[in-house]
Write a structure and sequence with these properties.
- With 135 residues, this protein is of the alpha+beta class.
- It is 38% helix and 15% strand.
- The chain contains 5 helices and 4 strands; from the N terminus they run αββαββααα.
- The protein has a 4-stranded antiparallel beta sheet.
- β1 and β2 form a beta hairpin.
- α1 runs parallel beside α3.
- The chain is globular and about 40 Å long.
- It starts with a helix and ends in a 13-residue tail after the last helix.
Length: 135
């Protein structure tokens, strides 16, 4: 098991290197197999508007990524394959090439709703109701 974790950690570190000089990220860090990428966004912090939009984007790609505000946390399970981890890094790179903008996002995504779940997950997972503000 220790060898598997060490290999996963090395693969994660190699994947993060591609974001070092990417102007859309201000920092990247890693401990063990867990990585974090700080996005250069209009607003920063835990409640930054980009977080829910990124979550919806990655869910649409079939990827579970944990964006907290403008920080993307990558917490791969120990059973992830190298190809799956590459796919995750590729999706992050693809989104950054688009400038991390969401010009084609649905009205629900723009309003920070989580209604854009992949069809394959809609029937198999019980999702909590979207949070709505009472403004």
């Amino acid at each position: 098991m220790a060898e598997r974790i060490a290999a996963l950690s090395a693969k994660q570190a190699a994947g993060l290197r591609r974001f070092r000089d990417n102007p859309f990220f201000t920092d990247s860090r890693m401990t063990g197999t867990i990585a974090a990428l700080d996005l250069r966004a209009g607003s920063a912090g835990y409640l930054a508007e980009i977080g829910p939009k990124l979550r919806a984007f990655f869910l649409d790609q079939g990827l579970l990524v944990r964006p907290l505000g403008n920080v993307l946390y990558l917490l791969p399970p120990y059973c992830i394959t190298g190809d799956e981890l590459d796919r995750l890094h590729d999706a992050i790179e693809e989104r950054s090439r688009c400038g991390l903008s969401f010009p084609h996002a649905s009205r629900e995504t723009r309003s920070l709703s989580f209604s854009t779940r992949p069809a394959s997950l809609r029937s198999s997972i019980r999702w909590p109701a979207p949070i709505t503000s009472k403004a």
